[in-house]
Design brief:
The complex is a heterodimer of chains A (about 130) and B (about 190). In chain A, strands 1, 2, 3, 4, 5, 6 and 7 form a 7-stranded antiparallel beta sheet that branches. Chain A has about 130 residues and is mainly beta. Chain A has a single domain, classed as Jelly Rolls (Sandwich). Chain A has strands spanning about 10-15, 35-40, 45-65, 65-75, 85-90, 100-120, 125-134. Chain B has a single domain, classed as 3-Layer(aba) Sandwich (Rossmann fold), CATH 3.40.50. Helices cover about 35% and strands about 25% of the residues of chain B. Chain B has 6 helices and 6 strands. Chain B has helices at about 20-25, 70-75, 95-100, 100-110, 135-145, 160-185, and strands spanning about 5-10, 40-50, 55-65, 85-90, 120-125, 145-150. In chain B, strands 2-3-1-4-5-6 form a 6-stranded mixed beta sheet, with helices on both faces. In chain B, a hairpin with a 6-residue loop joins strand 2 (about 40-50) and strand 3 (about 55-65). The model of chain B has no long low-confidence stretch (mean pLDDT about 95). Classes of the chains: A mainly beta (about 130), B alpha/beta (about 190). Chains A and B meet through strand 6 of A and strand 1 and helix 6 of B. Bound molecules: guanosine-5'-triphosphate (GTP) and magnesium ion. The site of guanosine-5'-triphosphate (GTP) has 23 residues of chain B, from helix 1.
Chain lengths: ~130, ~190
């Protein structure tokens, strides 16, 4: 399946809890699983994706490594604040390859999606790609 | 350039010098308190450490936890999620060294299998006449537990930075290793 990257659709990562210059949060939405955002120690860690317009989202797919517990929140405001809870998920640990998890969002409309990583299987976890199905 | 964050737990028997060491480290050697004032909960100290030969740094959240046995359980609830361990004993107290294995068991049970880099610190080298624990013995035990061994004197400001600096470096190395692993992962 060919799916365009989120940034080509005008999406942006507007907040990330921490980051390494060489592995910036933009790597999450460039559509490439070779590039990644790496957390820099301690939890929770979070990032927020902003869409150019309110977007209906059926599901998001998260490619990551060592993420254990994830919460997803959203809003339909222009500001990255006042989020409402959408879903949470415990991810399975993988070794030597990425975790790839589809997370159903039930067609909710959002301008911001907030991903909160509340725990990991290691001190550092990475997020390689977020893609959306709508 | 990256700024890492790590939560470092200081444990060990009461009065071995955990608070003295953490204050010494935190204040860059300005502060030594001669009178013992028992820690009754956990004290949080924040210190940023630059990693030599890089532009990177590690922000250490130092958790100085009470050593008195009746307080430990309550303190454990406040430890939070740990990244690093600094286990301290008093070189003039054989008992405080013997108890290190209990501290290790407690921390291991708490961390549930997650690996955290650690150091063992023998404190109070200034009281050499009263020394009860030989360096070689402590060193050997530390090695068997995967800990790096250091000796310090908070009173004489001897070597006080070394344990936490080496922990910051260990955390930084771990980060580098994980980056390397992550770069070589296959698709999901
Ligand atoms: N001679 C000497 N005394 C020290 C040294 N470090 C600490 N002390 C003294 O030992 C006593 C206990 O030190 P603390 O740092 O309060 O001990 P602690 O491990 O924090 O004890 P708890 O808070 O009860 O767990 C104090 O009187 C300190 O002044 C040292 O290197 N040499
Ligand atoms: Mg104390």
């Amino acid at each position: 399946m060919i799916r365009s990257s989120l940034n080509s659709l005008g999406a942006k990562v507007v907040v990330a809890a921490s980051s390494d210059e060489n592995h910036p949060p933009e790597s999450i939405i460039d559509g490439d699983t070779k590039t990644f955002w790496m957390t820099t120690g301690m939890f929770p860690q979070e990032f927020i994706i902003r869409f150019a317009d309110p977007t209906n989202i059926t599901a998001v797919t998260l490619d990551s490594y060592n993420v254990k517990h994830l919460k997803v929140e959203k809003n339909i405001s222009q500001k990255a604040s006042q989020f409402e809870f959408v879903t949470e998920k415990e991810l399975e640990q993988t070794e030597g390859h990425l975790q790839s998890n589809a997370i159903p969002l039930n067609g909710s409309s959002a301008t911001h999606l907030r991903f909160i990583i509340t725990s990991g299987y290691d001190h550092f976890v990475s997020v390689h790609r977020v893609s959306i199905q709508n | 350039m990256v700024k890492l964050r790590a939560r470092c737990l200081l444990v060990g028997d009461a009065a071995v010098g955990k608070s003295a060491l953490s204050h010494m480290f935190h204040s860059d050697g300005a502060l030594f308190q001669k009178n013992y004032s028992m820690t009754t909960g956990v004290e949080l100290l924040l210190k940023c450490v630059n990693i030599p030969e890089t532009n990177d740094s590690v922000e250490l959240y130092i958790i100085d936890s009470a050593g008195k046995d009746t307080l430990v359980e309550a303190c454990e609830k406040m430890w939070g999620e740990l990244s690093l361990l600094c286990l301290v004993f008093d070189l003039t107290s054989e008992q405080s060294f013997a108890n290190c294995s209990h501290w290790m068991e407690r921390v291991r049970a708490y961390c549930q299998g997650c690996h955290i880099p650690g150091v063992l610190v023998g404190n109070k080298t200034d009281l050499c006449a009263r020394r009860e624990v030989q360096a070689s013995v402590a060193q050997e035990w530390a090695q068997s537990q995967g800990l790096e061994y250091h000796e310090t004197s908070a009173k004489d400001k001897e070597n006080c930075d070394a344990p936490l600096l080496s922990l910051a470096q260990a955390f930084h190395s771990l980060y580098r290793e994980r980056l390397e692993t992550t770069q070589n992962l296959g698709p999901g």
